[in-house]
Amino acid sequence: MSGIMGIYYLDARPVESADLGRMVDILAHRGPDGADIWVDGSVGFGHRMLWTTPESVIEELPLLSQTGDLVITSDARIDNRDELICALQFDHCPPEKITDSQLILRAYERWGEQCPEHLLGDFAFTIWDKRKQKLFCARDHFGVKPFYYYHQEGKAFLFASEIKALVSLPQVPRRLNEVRIADYLALMMEDKAITIYQDIMRLPPAHSMVVNQSGIRSWSYWSLNPDHEIRLASHEAYAEEFRKIFTEAVSCRMRSAFPIVSHLSGGLDSSAVSCVARNLLTGGNTKLHTISSIFDKITGCDERPYINAVLEQGGFISHYVHGDEFGPLSNLDEIFQYEDEALLGPSHFYPWNLNRTVKELGLRICLDGFDGDTTVSHGIMRLTELARQGDWKLFILETKAVAQKFNIPPYTLFRGHGLPYLKDLAKRWRWIAFVKAVQQIHKHFGGSRKKLILQHGLKYLVPEAMWQWRSYKQDKSVSPVASQAPLVNRNFAERIGLDERIEKLGGFPKQPLTVREEQWLTLNQGLLTYTLELMDQYAAIFSLEARHPFMDKRLIEFCLALPSEQKLYQGWGRIVMRRALAGILPEEVQWRGGKADLSSNFTDGILNRDRQLLEEVMRDKLGSLENYINLDILQGAYQRLLCDGNKVSDEDSMAVWQAVILALWFEYNQLMP
Prior knowledge:
Blueprint lengths: L2 E7 L7 H10 L8 E6 L2 E6 L14 E2 L5 E9 L2 H8 L11 H12 L9 E9 L4 E6 L8 E5 L3 E5 L2 H5 L10 H8 L14 E3 L4 E6 L2 E6 L14 H18 L8 E3 L4 H14 L6 E7 L9 H8 L4 E7 L9 H5 L12 H12 L4 E3 L4 H5 L5 H7 L3 H15 L3 H8 L1 H9 L3 H15 L3 H8 L7 H14 L2 H5 L5 H7 L1 H8 L9 H9 L2 H15 L4 E3 L5 H8 L7 E2 L2 E2 L1 H6 L6 H4 L8 H11 L1 H10 L10 H14 L5 H20 L4
Parallel strand pairs: 13-14, 13-16, 14-15, 16-17
Antiparallel strand pairs: 1-3, 1-9, 2-3, 4-5, 5-6, 6-7, 7-11, 8-9, 8-10, 11-12, 18-19
Helix pairs in contact: 2-3, 6-24, 12-13, 12-14, 29-30
């Protein structure tokens, strides 16, 4: 993890070293091991260095090519080093003397604007091509490394790892982007380009960009293939291949000049990363550090039985943070010194406190199990697949198995995954298949066959035009804002066109019908990108680098292409990973069902540990929000939170949280809506 920044004056003004110096200084937390700038007329780059990999210790950035025609500044860890070193012919230079930035620069010399297509790893970089008078910028496949920019057409282009470096210069305005505020309040983070400031943008993941005096040209250099499927000979073959790819995903993120710590929560994902990393260190003198949140007071959140099961295998140095000794509103003044946007999630205080402890321990590289749920997939949509295939027998077996393992009422699963297809059969007049399905459902779930036929079959004999008219009337009577974002002030929503924005960006573009469709859509959601940016920010605050094995391109492509039975089998989600890590994970972790729900700790934290600040905001600091928020809806949610505590709905808790954070962020940054 490092910090990058740069200025390109499109009107040929010379770059002032002092401006670059200001940007470098404000990102000092991203790189305490060194800083430098490079200026050539109207172009200038800066860099903040954090040593992490063995090669980074000898790395000097910004870096000029041997000819002097190219210069690069980068925040990068390249994982396919051996492949690139072989392809790019480094004239017998020892690999340990070749830095990742040298690899990127040589790749650009060889492949030009197509070079990101040949890179694996986490990266954000900019290259100045003096001969062609252009900047070339690129960001990694999933957006692990951040890249923000400000473009003033015909005059200036500025970029940086964090927004604060951009707004440190007087030429970059700090104008609030109300559309981003609306997106946040509507819980819709699908726009991967905008930020909370007007005119400050983010380069989306898997995108490249060229900037020259003609303007900006941006394109996607890679996308996930939703149609590819892998077919292997047996369950064992799938498990073996998963184990191979996952081990490599962990291994390449352990390329380090320093000891490594793993965030160990006790869940399947963080335990998998920790156990594989520990095994990779076996035989050396280095043990893997772990850091875990534990809960002595809010015991329902405590995962120590699973954490201890991992630690008892040996090979770890364990550390702990008490997750119930601080609240979600704690340390906000300190957090807001670094956090550029107000759009915090309600679990933000866990990584903050874990990373602060990691910093105090003198460590700087953190592994985690971030979003293994999405990468490997629980595969619940397999139930929908089975229903649509007419395999009701297997559908019912899997439904009952899932219900038992995850304590879900079987009829709830049937209603969500079987009933829609039953209705579809009736709509398409496939009555033989419909009646057979009703017989199977009655046999295994009980209930009235007559009711199933009447409610979900015969009503579709009513002329279709009548149902279309009724649906049209219902759809028009309630706006997307009213139904999906009741917290948003209606006048504000109309002013910025939030209804149309929700219809365009909100949720999936179509209802997924298969595991792969749902997984592909989830992996492409903007929320994933934004969460990765937050995790980078919360590591950078403490001069740490966060590394996410489940965000490995090879692993995601493999898991997406798996048949659905390798994701859900006999009620077990993520079955391929469970099989693959047999003998590596403790059995009680390998075969656990769900995981602890931390919502009770959030509620206790905001109502008890942070009660004074909560009441102060709700009483005195909502004036800045009245143009954005429906205050009646907010006050109703607040009163229910005070009265019902842990029984309150997630919607009410989230509404109060969003309003409080937004009000405090406005106040801290002295921004008036």
